[in-house]
Amino acid sequence: LACELTASVQESIASADAKQSKSDASPVTVADYGAQALVSAALATAAAEAGAPPPALVAEETSAELLATDVDGSVLTRITALVNEAIAGMGKGEETGLTTMNEADVLAAVDQGGGTGGGSGEFWVLDPIDGTKGFLRGQQYAVALALVRDGQLALGVMGCPNFSRGGDGENGEGCMFYAVHGAGAYASPMRANGSGAERVRADAAVPPARARLAESHGTSVVSAHGTTAQVAKKVGLGLPPLQMDSMAKYASVACGDAHVYMRFRPADYREKIWDHAAGAIVASEAGCAVSDVDGAPLNFSRGRFLDVAGGIVAAPPALHAAVLEAARSIDLPGRP
Prior knowledge:
By secondary structure, the protein is of the alpha+beta class.
């Protein structure tokens, strides 16, 4: 449902109300808020039907940022209309139990994502649009949801509406990736409603000379192409890098379209848990090792941020070890 909403907005991205700016300088769209409101409301509705309170949710967007820039209220009106169009469309309202939402409902649903996370109990982690710059360019992005239980990733789902398995990052018909801890990672066509799912596995046997790096576009704050190129050269990665936005890079490594995902942050940048939770468990369950550059597992028990050393690496075990070894000889700005 959230993927359908974001895809419909992406088709009309040239409209004047589609783009906002956030205080951290990353672009944001009405689709971010709409997708977050939809997923938050769906989680709360499912909990209510089970006689439970709304679940804890850690998500990216806040109504305060929206209201601070939406001076005349037109963006909130557009978001609310999009949410209700998505609920009404294709009978999906019956499947989710969602009913028409007013503007106050939308704001409340967005702010349900203000959870703090932590190391005990359960909470959901949502990035309503990961890779917003790719979304605005009409390229790769992901709607990503994960469940954290007592600080450990329990499951993850990534909707990648433009992803094409076996491709080079070009737009395709879309793919849904999901993984459950200890049960493997799977992919199905976006519009197949879960049917046709196939297990995906990283290519653990690929030699470095035939391996490919997945990295962010140069416009990303964590692109660090100079650093990734140094590491790739030391490891001997032989194929040109696959550049794309969003957690789709985790998906590309999970299904063998790429073989190493490296992300090196600036010294003043803190990774957020919603940028990695769903992708990390999909890659891990596909057979990848996922860690910071010192080899420590990603820690989702510390709240809304991932305080990692230097950067993040996801790859099949042999390549993962080679990347960590190569990275040790490089001065990384985010490493203590």
